[in-house]
Prior knowledge:
Layout: H1 4-59, E1 75-81, H2 91-102, E2 109-114, H3 116-123, E3 128-133, H4 142-158, E4 161-173, E5 176-185, H5 194-198, H6 212-287
Parallel strand pairs: 1-2, 1-4, 2-3
Antiparallel strand pairs: 4-5
Helix pairs in contact: 1-6, 4-6
Amino acid sequence: MASLQDIRRRIKSVKSIQQITNAMNMVATSRLRRAKEAATANKPYADKVAQVVHEIAANAGDFSHPLLEKHEGGKKLILVLAADKGLAGAYSSNVFKETVAHIENKADTVLITVGRKAKEHFKNRGYTIVQEYSGISERPHYEHAQAIARDIIQRFESGEIREIDMVYSRFVSAITCIPEVVRLLPFEGEGEGGAAKEKGGIRAEYIYEPSAEEVLGFLLPQYLVTVIYAALLQAAASELSSRMNAMSNATDNAGELISKLDLHYNKVRQAGITNEINEIVGGANALQ
């Protein structure tokens, strides 16, 4: 049986851990508010850009652009958005599972990772990582999306990559985030009529100056940056919400463990007092 000193030491240790997890919970909660606001504010813009680009693509006809070309050779590239730090529950592991499920041929696939956890996970499992970005998962900026977009555009236009997908976590609520896969390149329009036709609505008509082809050629790289930046913001909010929930659960579990240890401590202490009383009474009886 553990001594009273051992139990006191264990209680002190758990209380220290509880203070740390509680502090991390508060930090994540504070950062989540800003990340959620950024993701929410960016979503209407990202959705509108996607809608306009697809509408223009539907009107561009037989338009040729490097980002629309389908390459026969080259490898498949997957952009993986995960966390820089741990203690975020199953956030990163869910992204990794979705990524692995999307890889058909390991030898024919290369990765660009965002977040140290993604780099370490896939590097240790023998995947080819051609580029990695660290230190931006919680606080992404527009410049980070521009740098990533320039990198993947250069690789795609050079012919070394035939298609590019992105795996990230879409933020739904403070308790829910869903891993998703998005095709980045080659750009695929929605076809004649677009989404409005599928919903039974009327497709919007635009007047293009100078022409739909030139406008689309200018917007495609910008569209790619917008999609990546929106995903970075969604991933940041998902990471912080997962960390907030994980640290909240850890704090609650530490409180329950402390209660159990206090009860155990009192039982051991009571048993010790009872033994001392029995020894005193036994000694008194022996002297009679």
